[in-house]
Design a protein that fits this description.
Structural class: alpha+beta
Bound molecules: 3,4-dihydroxyphenylalanine
Number of domains: 2
Distance between the termini: 78 Å
CATH class of the largest domain: Alpha Beta
Number of strands: 9
CATH superfamily of the largest domain: Bira Bifunctional Protein, Domain 2
Number of helices: 11
Strand content: 15-25%
Radius of gyration: 37 Å
Length: 348
């Protein structure tokens, strides 16, 4: 029998047997018989070395072609067997595999998280580093180190949730931080200038809930300390932030304000989105909406952390986070953010 006849025979037998093989076990047996080491095809391939160069070319090519064919058929048959098995088992369990799949609901980030990330990105692009601090804070960092000693009237503006009720006046009492400003002191204690940080985080106030007040909300603090920092740097930085977050057309306004830990202190306001400065209910008829407090770091605070105020100066700012999307999208009730109403949350 010539080699080509042999190959033809192998092909025929292989096809017939493959037709008949109906499960994975039979297919594996088939594979061993026709493609395995001891298969007749493999014998033919091994015997090629004994042939002349011309024969090698033709017979060798034919044998290899058959090998590829057999492999292809096996693959097709395997897929068919698998499909049959799946269909049979689906039919048995009464599953209709032709039904379209259920859409997998994609989650999304909470609007406050989205705004945080956006604001963080604006400030990191200006060279600020993002750091976080503790929500349970010492009286010292929350108040005293920020020039707000016990009995200071500024304490009344931040209704505090105390953790330790005794000895409220020695600075060793713990509380839930009422603002992110304590991180100014913590960071300056650890790091010498130049300092450029923003601190996002939760803050707490003991307040009755209404459309503009909730006992837990978010703030973002900023701090920059270096040689030669001036109020112009503060204004430039915050102006850039406002342009990027609210758009170039919204006008901003700086005015004097008082915060114990800055001197001078300022407040920044943006033009009211609703009335464009004419005055309406939202902005209390002023045309402006205050969005943050800021100022030049008080020299006494620099001294307290061992930074020489004759050499270094710095600016600080602090903003309420929920206010930002409220002003941007015209949301008039802060409670919506924490009501877990998906109809509201899905809009972002
Ligand atoms: N911590 C202040 C507050 O919660 C906001 C603030 C005002 C932060 C002035 C600052 C600042 O850094 O310089 O009302």
């Amino acid at each position: 029998m010539s080699i080509s006849q042999k190959l033809e025979e192998i092909r025929k037998a292989a096809t017939t047997e493959l037709e008949a093989a109906g499960d994975a076990k039979k297919l594996e047996e088939w594979r061993i018989r026709y493609l395995g080491k001891k298969s007749r095809l493999n014998e033919v391939l091994r015997s090629l070395s004994r042939l002349s160069l011309d024969e090698k070319k033709t017979v060798g090519a034919a044998a290899n072609r058959l090998k590829v064919e057999l492999e292809e058929w096996l693959g097709q048959k395997e897929r068919a067997v698998r499909r049959d098995r799946m269909e049979a088992s689906a039919a048995e369990k009464g599953i209709d595999i032709s039904l379209p799949g259920r859409p997998f609901p994609a989650g999304r980030l909470h609007p406050v998280t989205q705004v945080y990330r956006e604001i963080d990105a604006i400030f990191t692009s200006m060279g600020f580093e993002v750091v976080e601090g503790p929500e349970v804070e010492w009286d010292y960092y929350n108040f005293e180190a920020l020039n707000i000693p016990a009995e200071h009237p500024a304490r009344d503006t931040m209704a505090t949730l105390w953790i330790d009720s005794e000895e409220k006046d020695n600075g060793k009492t713990r509380l839930l931080r009422t603002h992110t400003s304590p991180m100014q002191v913590r960071v300056m204690e650890q790091k010498s200038p130049p300092v450029r940080i923003v601190v996002p985080g939760k803050v707490y106030r003991y307040e009755a809930t209404d459309a503009t007040h909730i006992p837990m909300f978010h703030q973002l603090e900023g701090l920059a300390v270096d040689k030669g920092i001036t109020l112009a740097d503060l204004k430039g930085t915050l102006y850039e932030f406002a342009c990027r977050f609210f758009g170039k057309d919204r006008r901003v306004r700086f005015r004097c304000d008082y915060f114990p830990f800055v001197e001078p202190g300022v407040e920044m306001a943006i033009e009211c989105a609703v009335c464009k400065g004419d005055g309406c209910r939202l902005c209390g008829n002023s045309g402006w909406i205050e969005i943050l407090g800021a100022g030049m770091v008080h020299p006494r605070i620099l001294e307290r952390v061992g930074i020489d105020p004759e050499v270094y100066t710095g600016f600080a700012f602090g903003m309420g986070i929920e206010r930002m999307p409220m002003l941007r999208y015209g949301i008039d009730d802060i409670r919506l953010f924490y009501g877990s109403d998906l109809r509201f949350l899905r809009q972002f």
